[in-house]
Write a structure and sequence with these properties.
Order of helices and strands: EHEEHHEEEEHEEEEEHEEEEHHEEEEHHH
Shape: globular
Structural class: alpha+beta
CATH class of the domain at 5-48 and 60-68 and 106-183 and 282-365: Alpha Beta
Oligomer: single chain
Mean pLDDT: 93
Largest sheet: 8 strands, mixed
Number of strands: 20
Helix content: 25-40%
Radius of gyration: 21 Å
Distance between the termini: 21 Å
Low-confidence stretches: none
Strand order of the largest sheet: 6-5-14-15-16-13-17-20
Bound molecules: flavin-adenine dinucleotide
Number of helices: 10
């Protein structure tokens, strides 16, 4: 199918990747996002080898490599800052023969800007501050075709051949269209993230293991890195923004060496993102009629495998491939679901298992084994 009129709801990584690939394949794409302005929270993103393959398929590899950071793998340290070993992340075979990096990082705002720039070259702009208030479909048309009538918050009612919902973890449309879907569940952990200046020696991803919390650094550009810290929060305490800096510094105080001087650089101006972790997986079909879910709206993972954004990008690629091949939207969406369900479920479930191992203070070896076997599985074609 080509020349279809498609609405993308949500301009996160899933929505923008879907928009880019569907527009490239000759469809007329409109993108809306509820936010009035771009407020890309969540600091930086770690990019795994499989995510680089998706980035290549999206056609944005050279921009990501120029504006992000690539590195060979992870330098593992103990909580005194002693370097224990370096794990080299295997490179995934590229689809075009280009050499893909094994690991990397990028600021979320930079990745968004790259995706938006590539979309605008195709003539697609994101319309901000717009939501759909309802989606109605006539599923019983005599010729079997389905169209969606979408009512928007600016009072327009528009018709589309397909609607792609990339509304993220708290998707309201998922609640309406898939009432049996289980809501996201808290996992008992929280993730702290903050973007900081990158010391020159932080030239790999760094892990600091053996403390009561797990800490890491990911370079995201020549100048910057982000620090992440995973904390056990069985009772999900309420935390005011004003106190985040003090709590983060106190959590980092058990670490010596480089991490202690990095902790000192955190101050009241630091933009700290604190987020209790939640996850969910929609195990039944991800579509109804000509409406389909992509990204966190269908499968939201915790960050242990650093692959949620990669899965969101792959969703857009696979959806557009199946859209091009299929005779109608239902067939395309069904084939997309068949190709995505096991892979995305593995990421969600194995990330949860690694989180449970972290909570149980299981050995680094046990945790690393599950990370390695999961990334090996993700290395297979999507
Ligand atoms: C703590 C943490 C760390 C992570 N780290 C990594 C990492 O290092 N690497 C990695 O690959 N993945 C990581 N992930 C996962 C990754 O962030 C997500 O999987 C990814 O961002 C999901 O993208 P999305 O487009 O599906 O959703 P979102 O990014 O949530 O985007 C949804 C968009 O939809 C819009 N929207 C919502 N409702 C509506 C509506 N009704 N109408 C219009 N617009 C709407 C929102 O404004 C938003 O712009 C992490 C996740 C967490 C929680």
């Amino acid at each position: 199918m080509q020349d279809k009129r498609i609405l993308i709801v949500g301009a996160g990584i899933a929505g923008l990747s879907s928009a880019l690939m569907l527009a490239k394949n000759g469809n007329d794409v409109m993108v809306i996002d509820a936010n009035e302005n771009w407020e890309i929270t969540g600091a930086g993103l770690t990019i795994s080898g499989p995510s680089f393959r998706a980035i290549e398929a999206l056609g944005i590899l050279s921009d990501v490599m120029a504006q992000g950071h690539t590195h060979p793998g992870i330098k593992v340290h103990d909580n005194h800052g002693l370097h224990l070993k370096t794990l080299i992340s295997p490179c995934i075979a590229s689809q075009t023969g280009a050499a893909l990096p094994g690991a990397g990082g990028i600021l979320r705002s930079t990745l968004h800007a790259i995706l938006l720039e590539h979309l605008s070259r195709l003539g697609v702009q994101v319309q901000m501050g717009l939501k759909c208030t309802s989606i109605s479909q006539d599923l019983l048309r005599p010729d079997g075709s389905v169209q969606a009538q979408v009512h928007l918050t600016d009072q327009r009612t528009l018709s589309f051949d397909a609607v792609v919902l990339g509304e993220g973890l708290y998707s309201k449309s998922r609640q309406h269209l898939f009432p049996k879907a289980t809501p996201p569940a808290l996992t008992g952990q929280a993730c702290w993230r903050v973007v900081l200046s990158r010391p020159e020696n932080v030239d790999h991803r760094f892990f600091y293991l053996g403390g009561s919390v797990k800490v890491g650094l990911t370079p995201v550009s020549n100048e910057h890195m982000y620090l992440f810290l995973l904390e056990s929060i069985p009772h999900n305490p309420h935390r005011e923004t004003a106190e985040l800096q003090v709590i983060l510094k106190s959590l980092l105080s058990e670490f010596n060496g480089e991490l202690s001087s990095i902790a000192q650089s955190i101050n009241a101006q630091s933009h700290i993102v604190y987020r209790p972790l939640e996850s969910h997986f929609l195990s039944d079909s991800w579509s109804t009629g000509c409406v389909v879910l992509v990204g966190d709206a269908a499968h939201a993972t915790t960050p242990q495998l650093a692959s949620g954004a990669g899965m969101a990008m792959e969703d857009g690629i696979v959806l557009s491939e199946e859209f091009l091949k299929a005779k109608d939207t239902q067939e395309a969406f069904h084939r997309y679901f068949l190709r995505r369900q096991n892979r995305c479920n593995m990421v969600v479930q194995n990330s949860l298992k690694i989180g449970q191992l972290e909570l149980a203070r299981a050995s680094a070896v046990e945790q690393a084994q599950l990370v390695e076997s999961s990334l090996l599985e993700l290395a297979s074609p999507y």
